[in-house]
Structures are given as structure tokens and as C-alpha cells.
What does this fold into?
Amino acid sequence: MSRVVPRVRARVARRSGALAALVLLVAVLAAPPAAAHNSLRATDPADGATVETAPAQVTLTFDQPALELGSQVVVTGPDGAVVSDGPVQLLDVSVVQPLVTTLPAGAYTVDWRVTSADGHPLTGSLTFTATAAVGVAEPAAPTEPAETAEPTDAPEAAPASDAPTDEAAPTDVATTTGVDGPLDEEGTSPWVWVVLAVATLAAGATVALLAARRRTGLGGTAAGGPPAAPSGDGPSTGA
It folds into this structure.
């Protein structure tokens, strides 16, 4: 009897150990794999690449999907201006950052920060160069100056007439006075005064001559002519 009990206890112990090992194996196999950090696999454009024109977007591809919270991509153009357009877009295991439509030629810098699946942030940067601009207006070509018409032979202006105008024409005194010569301040020729003086002297001489002839005629009548009739008022000469 004493021998049977130890054997039973040994069997129970062996079975319990086997069961515990089986439970532990099942637990290990059923446990989820531990989460790991995301790893960057590729970029478009590639780091250090030279492209003909800047792309419409920058794409970062990881080995696991990223979390939207905290993920950000900033793209800077050659002139230092940020050309990122809006927030990032998560497409499967890719993080896509759209760019603006006007992109100059030159070197671009991409600074990115992505939140991995385990919540750990990842950061990095890359560069690429565009040889041609996109959406930038080309400077207008200088236009050639219009050909100027050769000057035509303009008709020569007629020479100004030497004759004075009506306003500046001097008054023709000879027409009104009939006497040539310069005018005095009142507009009368000095010859007019000479003619008037001569006429006055001639008239005076004529009057004096007539008066002398009259006196001579009266004196002759008194010497040889008949006596004058006596006046009716004198004394009578009756006998």
C-alpha cells in the first residue's frame, strides 16, 4: 500500500508539469508580436535627385502605416518660401505631402516628422533639385520698337508780307491834307500852317489895298468935283 501512493503522486506531478508546459507554449504562441518603430523605405523624389521640374507632391514610404497625429512634412523652395500645400495625406504605408502649383527652378529641402505605429516620432530630411520652373510666368520678350515714318518734306511757309497790317499801317496824311511832309503831334502837316499864314497875309494885303483905293477916290472928288449940296438945315441965302 505504501508503494502505490508514491507512484500515484509521481504520475500526478508529471502530468501537472506537462500541462503547465503546454499552457505556457500556448500563451507564447498566442501573444501578439511586439510593436516596432517605422522604418523609411523610399522617397519620391529620391534624396539628392535632380528632376526636370518640381513634382506636384512629395511621397515618403515606410514599412508600416504611420499615425496621422503629429505627422508633418515641410517643403521649402529655392527662395526660402514654404511650398507645402495643406496637411499630409496617409495612404497605406505612404505619407504624401501636396505642393503648390507655382514652383520655381532650384534646390528644394524636405523636412519630415512622422508618428510611427508604436507612437514614437521619427524625423528626417532630404533634398532634390528642379532644373525648370512649374507654373511661373515667363518674362515677356522685349518688343522691337516700331519703325518711325521718315519725315516728309513739309511745304515751306510763305514768307511774311513786308506790308504792315491794317492795325499797324500809318495814316496816309497826304491823302487827307494834300500836303507832303511829316505830321506834328496833332496829326497836321506843318505845310498846312504855312499855307494858312500865306493866305492870311494875302487877305490882309488885299483889304489894305482896297482901303487905300477907296481913300484915294474920296480925295479926288473933294478937290475937282462939284461942291456938295448945302444941307437943308443951314441958313437960307435969300435976297
